[in-house]
C-alpha cells in the first residue's frame, strides 16, 4: 500500500480533487511551462484568481482519470475552471468535434 499522508489531527490528508499533493506548486510549474496560457481556450490565466472564479486556474488531466489517465506530471495541463468544467471527461478530440459542430450551426 502507498504512503499515507496524515494531518496534525491524525487524520488522513485529502489529496484534493486533482489527486496532486501540492496542487498550488504544480499550478505554478505548469503556468511557467505553458507561458500562462489555458491549454483549452488559449487565453491568459491569472493565478491570483481563486476557485470558484470562472477564470481561476485548475489542473486538468489530458487523458481523463475516468478513462484511464493517471494523475502524473505528463498527463496534467493548466486550464481555466470554466474550460475544464465544460470539457468534463471528454477526450481532447471529442471536445474539438463538439466545437466544430457548434460553429457550423451558427
SS strand fraction: 5-15%
CATH architecture: Orthogonal Bundle
Give a short account of the largest sheet: 2 strands, antiparallel
Q: What is the straight-line distance between the termini?
A: 53 Å
Report helical residue fraction: 25-40%
Tell me the number of structural domains.
1
Q: What is the average of the pLDDT values?
A: 80
Structural class based on helices, strands and sheet pairing: alpha+beta
How many helices? The count is 3
* Rg, nearest Å: 16 Å
**What's the CATH topology label?**
DNA Binding (I), subunit A
The parts where pLDDT drops under 50 for at least 5 residues are 14-18
CATH class wording:
Mainly Alpha
Strand order of the largest sheet: 1-2
- Give the beta-strand count: 2
Anisotropy-based shape: globular
How are helices and strands ordered from N to C? Answer: HEEHH
Plain-language structure description:
With 106 residues, the protein is of the alpha+beta class. The chain has a single domain (23-105), classed as Orthogonal Bundle (DNA Binding (I), subunit A), CATH 1.10.30. 30% of the residues lie in helices and 9% in strands. The protein has 3 helices and 2 strands. Strands 1-2 form a two-stranded antiparallel ribbon. It is globular and about 30 Å long. The model is unreliable at 14-18 (pLDDT under 50).
What would a concise description of this structure say?
It contains 3 helices and 2 strands, in the order H-E-E-H-H. The chain has 106 residues and is of the alpha+beta class.
Fold topology:
Elements: H1 23-33, E1 57-61, E2 76-80, H2 81-87, H3 92-105
